[in-house]
Amino acid sequence: KNEVEQSPQNLTAQEGEFITINCSYSVGISALHWLQQHPGGGIVSLFMLSSGKKKHGRLIATINIQEKHSSLHITASHPRDSAVYICAVSPDDKIIFGKGTRLHILP
Amino acid sequence: NAGVMQNPRHLVRRRGQEARLRCSPMKGHSHVYWYRQLPEEGLKFMVYLQKENIIDESGMPKERFSAEFPKEGPSILRIQQVVRGDSAAYFCASSPQGGAYTIYFGEGSWLTVV
Question: How many contacts, defined by CB atoms under 8 Å, are there between A and B?
Answer without folding.
Answer: 66
